[in-house]
Every structure is written in structure tokens, then in C-alpha cells.
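Protocol step 4 of 5: obtain the predicted structure for the target chain.
Materials: sequence only (see below). No template structures provided, no constraints applied. The aim of this step is simply to have a reference model before the mutagenesis design in step 5. Sequence pasted as it appears in the construct record:
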Amino acid sequence: MRLSRAGLSRTVQLLLAATALALAAAGRAGIAAAAEALAGAAAPDFVLKSAGGSNIRLSEYRGEVVLLSFWATWCGDCRAQLDALADARDVYGSAGLALLAVNLDRDDMTARKAAADMSAAFPVLHDQGGEVGRLYDVGTLPTAILIDRDGRVRKVFEGYRRGDERLYAEETERLLREY
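Step 4 output (C-alpha cells):
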């Protein structure tokens, strides 16, 4: 059976599209596998400078439930997720929930300006080289990581969609009730 030039071109396009979909699915599976591997493990400790100038160490929050949010100014869903996480912190902060927002922008001035524009009531940290993002296998933005009072990763939330607030609240309440 011989294909015409147009038929061959269409076949090649379909094969390329199928290959791209398979690679994308494999990438998502790899990211999901990294998130699953992180859940239950000790949260890697780190020190980052806050927008206010002080150094913040994750281990200083031992004894609290921590929502660690990785975001960037160029990420459309990141701001919406940060707003949702800030709301959760407002509701559960007095019960022991802390929020740390880790900005992954390369430029320090961009990160500081974003922090100032947010008027955040939580520490905004800058991971200029992306080292902390790599420690946590962040492959999707935004990513939120829920860490229990003993410093163990309990849940990884990759991406953000409206309605995820319920998931954050359910998981946070469950961890806060454990102690």
C-alpha cells in the first residue's frame, strides 16, 4: 500500500502528536511519582532569606503544621493558590498552621516587588537558584506541600484549580486534629 505525499505527511503528524502525548504523560507520571515518594518522608530543611531580610529556617516551625507554597510571578495560577492558602492560614493559624511562600523567580527584585505587592501576612522567601525547589522535586507550579508537626511531608498538591481550597482545609484540619 502506497501513501500519497499528503497521506504520509498526515501520518507523520499523527505519529508526532502521539509521541508528544506519550512523553507528556510520562512527564506527569514522573512528577506524580516524585510527589508520592516525597509524601511520608522527612521534609528537607532549608534556610532562605525572606522579603523582609531575615533568614527563615524550616525547622524553626517544628511543632506547627506548615503549608509550603512554591510559586513564581509568571505563573498564572500561583497567585490564586497563594490567596487560597493565605485564607487557610487566616482560619487555622491560631490552631498551629504556618504558611511559607517560596518564590522561584530568578530575579531578586521581581520576588521582592511581588512580596510587597501582596502585603503578605506570612513569610515570602526567595529561592533564587531553585535549590529548595529541587530538594522538594517541584516540577509543577504552583505546588503546595503540607508538612506535619513532626516535620514529615504529608501531602503534595500540584497545580491549582478552583475548589482546591476544600482539599487544603480537609487535609489541614486532619493534621491539626492529630495532636
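Step 4 remarks: Residues 106 and 128 are 5 Å apart (CA to CA). The longest helix spans residues 5-38.
Proceed to step 5.
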